[in-house]
Amino acid sequence: MQQIIDFIKELYKNKNPVQLHEPVFLGNEKKYVNDCIDTTFVSSVGKYVDRFEEMIANYTGSARAVACVNGTNALYLALKLTGVEQSDEVITQSLTFIATVNAIVHCNAKPVFVDVDRDTMGLSPKKMNEWLENNAKLENNQCVDCNTGNRIKACVPMHTFGHPVHIEELIDICAKWRIELIEDAAESIGSFYKGKHTGTFGHVGVLSFNGNKTITTGGGGMLLFQEKKQGELAKHLMTQAKILHKWEFKHDAIGYNYRMPNINAALGCAQMENIEMFLNSKRETAMKYKRFLSNIGMRFFDEPRDCKSNFWLSCLILSDKEEQIRFLTETNSNGVMTRPIWELMNRLPMFAQCQCGDLTNAEWFADRAVNLPSGFRNGDKVK
Ligand SMILES: Cc1ncc(COP(=O)(O)O)c(C=O)c1O
């Protein structure tokens, strides 16, 4: 244990305590934010919003990217735009951050928890298909839950810690069962599956730029669309569904105030200018962990086959719950911030009544996975 603590302290020599992840501003952040203040364009319109959306659309290869106040609201809007309605069911993984599930419940829809795969930590295509085979049927070209009679409208896989799920297989299963696919790519900017950016496979994909993510806008999210028209609709709805006019206040739907302010987008533009620097640092840190941990006989969670992970948070797999607790206790009381993987969603009181499939792998990770400090290391000077 002490060996790992010493290694991490050496890796982050100038940090005490060593944080899990901190935002870093080394580029044009101040210049662009000052520009917003100087020009008074601090709110929901401005050149940085447009520029940031374009930068993300280009980087991810999306037809349209739409900036949003945060990832959670972006997910909610993505579900709404996909047609998720009251009493619909939405399949997702029990091993996720709570925002994925909150967004589903905010639509008055019902989450169904399915297992993850051991090699991705993301929604398992095999387990999802098994659950559907045992519990669902196709009726009038819709997927219906035989237990409840509810429509199963969508599925939301999440690319855990930036490791892409088996997205091609999920696409096939969704097509077979007439289920819409929405990707929670909140953690996976810079992660690619067979060369294609995560969040660009489904009907909609969502990124987060919260302060703890690979790049940050303070708070913020982005919807990724492969059809421009869908993107324009999202933008319209998140602008209180206001009809464009020089002075009139007319609205054609019940909309939302979800636009990302220009001042946040300014941060985002500056951060995007350095995305490769952030990603390179993360990968280098991950590879250092991998080498060190394998030398001392411990398991680092590596990127899945055919994938390029962003290594947002490096992850160590311990042998059992007891070791996990011991590791968390020792590291956190010695100035090294580590965190367990999330409590499984089906174990939280609010979601305890939700339907679940077999969750063997999710339970396995819950007892063993720990995140290691993964913040940017300036210049990676530590050899
Ligand atoms: C998997 C996942 N989904 C959704 C979110 C929500 O994003 P935000 O914090 O921007 O609302 C986050 C992160 O915070 C996340 O990790």
Any overview of this molecule?
With 383 residues, this protein is α/β, with parallel strands linked by helices. It is built from twelve helices and 17 strands. The chain starts with a helix and ends in a 12-residue tail after the last strand. The structure holds pyridoxal-5'-phosphate (PLP).
Features:
383 residues, globular, alpha/beta, 12 helices, binds pyridoxal-5'-phosphate
Q: Number of helical segments?
A: 12
Strand portion: 15-25%
Q: How would a crystallographer describe the biggest sheet? A: 8 strands, mixed
Bound molecules: pyridoxal-5'-phosphate
How is the topology of this model organized?
Layout: H1 2-11, H2 29-39, H3 47-60, E1 64-68, H4 71-81, E2 89-93, H5 98-106, E3 110-114, H6 125-135, E4 136-139, E5 142-145, E6 152-156, H7 167-177, E7 180-184, E8 192-193, E9 196-197, E10 204-208, E11 221-225, H8 228-238, H9 262-273, H10 275-295, E12 299-300, E13 307-308, E14 315-317, H11 321-332, E15 339-340, E16 355-356, H12 360-366, E17 369-371
Parallel strand pairs: 2-3, 2-6, 3-16, 6-7, 7-10
Antiparallel strand pairs: 1-11, 4-5, 8-9, 8-13, 10-11, 12-14, 14-17, 15-17
The protein binds pyridoxal-5'-phosphate.
The site of pyridoxal-5'-phosphate has 14 residues, from α4 and α5.
Short description:
This protein has 383 residues and is of the alpha/beta class. Helices cover 37% and strands 16% of the residues.
